[in-house]
Amino acid sequence: MSSDDAAVIVSDIADLDKQKFLHGYNSEDGEELQNALRGSSEVDMTLAYLTEKLENLEHLLLLVLTGENDIEAIDIENDNVSAEVIEKAFTFDLLFAILNFELRELDGLMVDLQNLIVNALKKISSCENSTELFTGLARKLHHSEDLLKRSQERLLEIKIQLAKLQMSSFFFKQNEYKHDLDMGVEGELHLATSEWEPGVLTSEKRRVLRMLELSLARELELENKLMELKQNEEDLKLKIQLIDRVAVCMEEAAEVAWGRFLEADNEAEVLMGISKEMLGKLQLVNSNVSSSAKREEEFKSKLQYCIHELNEKETLIQKLNSSILQLVADNAEVTGLRERVQMLEQRLSRTESELMEASVACETSEQQLRVMEGEIESLREKAYAAEIRAASAEEKVTQLTDSNLELTEELDFLRGSNDSNTKKVSLLEKQLRELDIQLQHSRASSEASQEQQNMLYSAIWDMETLIDELRQKVAKAENKTESAEERCVILSETNSELKKELDFLRSRMEFMETSLDQATLEKRSSAKDISIRTGVIMDMVMQLAMERKRIQKQVQKSATDALSDDNQAVFSTSASHSTNLVLNLEAESSVETGKSRRMYVLIATLILLLSILAAHLFPRRLAVFKPVGSCSLAA
Fold this sequence. Notes:
Layout: H1 3-14, H2 17-23, H3 27-72, H4 83-126, H5 132-166, H6 169-172, H7 174-194, H8 202-371, H9 380-561, H10 564-634
Helix pairs in contact: 1-3, 1-8, 3-4, 3-5, 4-5, 4-10, 7-10, 8-9, 8-10
């Protein structure tokens, strides 16, 4: 598992925007989308595993090619084949078998991955709601399909190189090389056994050989255990590295989530401060509203007072209108009186003209009297009549003068009354103007109060809208804090699960370390036992050699001391007996060497089978461990 895969897994976990996006769909579309996302994540993980495995196999192929070149350079026909050559041959064969097995396993993995990509594309195409996320997933799957094709091409190249390597000369000469190797082992064993003294007992020989075989078997078992322990140690190291990487990625994801939680907490605190400020402003607004309500009540009382005054003024205006109507009627009467006065003045002018005519007539009469003094007597009657007429005229004049005086007085009175009426009218007009001005002022004040009331109503409405918006923001902030708390709970749960897994893995590591320590202690104790037993065997071999020399000396002495004939017969019988013993020993040694050779071949085949089985189990463990780690991460 590479760092890019871990980053992808962490981004899939930390990306909480996908979860919000998934909640926007209905249940069926959400399930389809979740299945598609799981399929794409599985495809990504398996692709990363395939690419890493291909790189490792290419490196292994290079090692196999270098080993093949080294083995081809060896002279196999030569009998002097060293242990290093045998080890190189075994390692080459083992690497070749591992490479073949891994290639077969990669073929199966690629087929499974191809089926998985096809199924994911079918699921995405079957979705009714084709959104940007579905198109992005489809592009990602097509890209992964291209990568799979490239990896298939690389795998085919590796197979071609393996086929070329299989057709090389070493694999055709493999059976001959094994036969020569077996012959060399048999020769060495024959030389080792031929050096022993023929006089040694077969039971001791068999016991020694059994001990050697047991020691070799135990040594091989210990070597196998050591190899297994090394492989387990490497597995544990790889698992620890993977766990450390996963822990680092999870810590990064936790840090990102913690940063988001802190940002949400800061936003919540800021929103709480804003809400407190807005609550203070709301309290101020409420106090202002209460004061404005009080002012409104005062304005209402003032308006009622103004309305009352207006009603009173309207009654006064009505009274003024009635008085104005009366004055208009009085003015009509005054005009009628004026017309009468004019008529009377015309009459006065007429009377004055008549008086002038009468005075002229008097003058003419006086002239006539003067002229006609003589006619006075005759005309006394006429004069008396004229005097009567003059008296009547004077009476009329006096009456006219009296009436004129009365008329003038009436005119003066009427003029005075007219002036007083005009003054009253002017005063009433002034009062009307003042009342109009007061009406206008009261109307302006009422309009201003209405405007202020409207402004207050609008301010109250704005404050209510602001309060609603703030409540909505507070609700959103509370929702965000709740979602952040839920995320924190989820992260804490995942952290606790990861801690549990880490504790479990640490306990397993401690157990493996203790088992490794026990194995090392057992190995050391077994090595000590082997060294002690080898020392005992070497001492026994030295004792056997010393006894053989001593027996040879005794035989030589007995041969020189005995008589010639008897000694020759005895010597012949002893020689025949010794030859029989030697032949029996040689036969037994050949049988035992054959058995030991078979044992060695069996041990070599067991080692090869164990190595193949370990190579078969090791990638499976790694493959099992990787998806398990990825699944735990995805969970």
